[in-house]
Amino acid sequence: MYDELTEVDIQKMREEIDYRTRVLRPQLIEEVQTARAFGDLSENYEYKCAKQAKNRNDSRIRYLERMIRTAKVIQVRDTADAVGLFDKVTVFHGLTQQEMTIQIVTTLRQDALKGLISKESPVGKALLGRRVGDRVTVETGPGTRYTMEIRAIEKGEDDASLDISSY
Q1: Is residue 43 over pLDDT 90?
Q2: What is the pLDDT of residues 131-153, one digit of tens each?
Q3: 3-class SS string, the chain
């Protein structure tokens, strides 16, 4: 299985790896060594916390490297009047009877609380390629579905302003 990512996603991951290896890792190693000097490691809370922070950093580096290694690089194509990647879409949600605006993004940049919806999610899959006025059915599980109506599409672009998610 691979993730479909853009060149900007890959570049942002490389920048984060660079920061974590050149800046953050030396700081965290120094914190571990400082805390280790406090004495008995079995009761040394500072050492335990410093070690956990170093391990989280190393884990994130491995995660990003694996994502880059297994990614399929995609091109963002402008789809004239249809919903495409990075477009902001205003939809009327049939279940809640509310209008909302969401943005279709790559999996790495998704954040549902901020309205950033992955193109791989049920909503993203249902909206991609559709036009204003279309009614789409979103299937969230076996026998669970709802409808949405596309009210507006604001074209977007992959401008690197969206952060990559932490995990």
Answers
A1: no
A2: 999 999 998 888 888 899 999 99
A3: CCCEECHHHHHHHHHHHHHHHHHHHHHHHHHHHHHHCCCCHHHCHHHHHHHHHHHHHHHHHHHHHHHHHHCEECCCCCCCCECCCCCEEEEEECCCCEEEEEEEECHHHCEHHHCEEECCCHHHHHHCCCECCCEEEEEEECCEEEEEEEEEEECCCCCCCCCCCCC
pTM above 0.90, yes or no: no
What tokens does 56 get? Answer: 């989280």
Q: Are 106 and 119 in contact (CB under 8 A)?
A: yes
Amino acid at the residue 23? V
Q: Which residues pair with 142 in a beta bridge?
A: none
